[in-house]
Design brief:
The protein is mostly helical. About 50% of the residues lie in helices and about 10% in strands. The protein contains six helices and four strands, in the order ααααββββαα.
């Protein structure tokens, strides 16, 4: 589970936990619906459980976020990769970009346009000797 999923889960738990407060106001503002109002009042008895779940999810999300931040700073990123053309087997040493993924690469020997293989995020992950910088840092690539 990545930190984005933890944050989304925490937000959903927070919304559910506070539904005993905002849901009745929303229902009344929309004109009543006493059945929904009774349902929302019934959820009030579980508000402590929902708030505890939300709090735990927020703590866990923060933990994962900090863990990710600290682990990425320890990795020394290699920016040079040798791309091998699958058509003519020509090899070319290239410097990888750090601010974007490279989806296309033109072989300087046969002019073949290389695209990432299925499941890879860029041409360096598919045809290079070194994976792209985000993958080296265990981040989501582009």
């Amino acid at each position: 589970m990545n930190y984005k999923q933890s944050i989304v889960g925490s937000a959903i738990a927070f919304i559910v936990a506070t539904s005993c407060c905002w849901l009745p106001a929303l229902v009344i503002g929309l004109g009543g619906a006493s059945g929904l109002l009774a349902f929302a009042n019934g959820l009030e008895q579980f508000s402590g459980v929902f708030m505890a779940i939300g709090f735990i999810a927020l703590i866990y999300g923060g933990y994962l976020y900090n863990k990710r931040k600290s682990s990425n700073t320890d990795v020394e990123v290699q920016l040079v990769s040798t791309i091998t053309c699958p058509k003519c087997e020509h090899q070319q040493e290239e410097t990888m970009p750090t601010n974007a993924c490279q989806y296309f690469y033109e072989c300087s020997n046969c002019n073949e346009i290389l695209k990432p293989k299925s499941g890879d995020c860029c041409v360096y992950c598919s045809y290079g000797t070194v994976a792209c910088p985000p993958i080296q840092q265990n981040l989501n690539c582009c």
